[in-house]
Amino acid sequence: MTPREIMIPMRLQRLLLSLLLLAFSGNAFAVWYRVEVIVFEHLYSDGDGEVWDKIPGLPVKERLITVSRDAADTPGPFYQGYPEGDRRLAGIYSALRYSKQYRPILHMAWQQPGLGASRARNVQVRKEDGMIIDNGLEVPLLKVDGVVKIRSTRLLHVDVDLAYFFQPVPETFLFTGIVEGTEEAPRYARITESRKIKLNEVHYFDHPLFGVLLQVSRLSKE
Predict the structure, then answer these.
(1) In a domain, 70, yes or no
(2) Which tops the pLDDT comparison, 97 or 4?
(3) Are 125 and 191 in contact (CB under 8 A)?
(4) Residue 10 backbone phi and psi in degrees, to 5
(5) Edge-to-edge, what's the strand order for the sheet holding 210-218?
(6) Are 134 and 172 in contact (CB under 8 A)?
(7) Which of 44, 85, 114, 122 could pair with 31 as two cysteines, CB 3.0-4.6 Å apart?
(8) 3: in domain
(9) Domain residue limits at 133
């Protein structure tokens, strides 16, 4: 048999390559979801009598991915964000804005494939509150920082791990350990919870100082 006789036609090569790429990305038969998150703070709270003398620890941000703000930021539809005018919880966000008890901090929405526990990614949920000069460098002040992870197995699960800084903290403090290492450090609170969730329901994650609303819905094949 000559080399010419075993050559694969170019069109067949392209088809095989396309199938290989789909299989490699794990996206060939994945269920896709739309995820929407609102983070808000309580304007008047005494902490329900709790004493905040224990450092809650900072969120663990492994296998982190950021949501693209524009379709051009990411190849393909992976973790693309939805614009402000295309968010289903906009009514809730607006109600929080006009509330005398709560103030919304962050509202974001994105689409992603449903992946099992071993392949699910932590999506960064982050809100900056201005900038500060630290050692001659301009660094952001963080108001909220953490992750949300959707795990799709036989049931749908979400992991929420968010830190809320009720005194905004320079991002560099997180790397130097100042946030957790000194009495003068800005104090913060943390929600860390894993639970089973139902599609299309608005799920509430509660803390005496802040809260998180989350909704996950299934995208159509189109």
Answers:
(1) yes
(2) 97
(3) no
(4) -60, -40
(5) 102-113, 32-42, 210-218, 202-206
(6) yes
(7) 114
(8) no
(9) 30-218
